[in-house]
Design goal:
- By secondary structure, the chain is an alpha+beta fold.
- The model has no long low-confidence stretch (mean pLDDT 85).
- The termini are far apart.
- It is globular.
- The chain has nine helices and seven strands; from the N terminus they run ααβααββαααββααββ.
Amino acid sequence: MRDLSVIAVLGDPVRRSLYDYVAAQDHEVSRGEAAAATGVQRPLAAFHLDRLAEAGLVEVTFRRMTARSGPGAGRPAKLYRRAAAEHQVSVPPRDYRGAADLLAGVVDMIGGELELQRAARSRGAAAGRAALRDTAEAGRHDRLTGALSEQGYQPYPDGPDIRLRNCPFRALASRYPPLICGMNLALLEGLLEGAALTGLDARLDPRPDECCVAVGSSKSNEC
């Protein structure tokens, strides 16, 4: 029931908004920044951020915010970032993660990568068609980020590309990188096709602590 108690921590709307803000950033967040971004007082933000840290939903580091050191430099600031740990809840408990691990192991053992990618591309296309239907009036950028967000990728702009802060398959990707990253790429290729986002390509471009896939224009991906 540990995961259930962790998720319950997010039941408070202020705490949830603080978590969403911290999780969406590519840098460690101070109490003052989080308070300003969510429109609450700093002491209240500090209280809720520490509750999130106690629950394991965010991680805490301490760092001086200036180059000064020694006496008079002040105490290091307490900073927060999204925790790498994953949580899932079902009542009564069900081990879907264990089943996924077994299935991935079998696919890897029998060399079923192409079949897995074919299935992933089909699933991605279905998700893309649903996004197109629900956001037909939206611009291309909003349609893309909306479709990616719906799948849990936490997209953010990075120059001409869209990077993905979260990997929905992180636990499996750490055990079977080629298999799961190939599946992930195929899924996103299908999503772009299904959402009629022509001129955009998904490509493998791993970064630490992010999804292994990035999305950019077809021209920018040509060698």
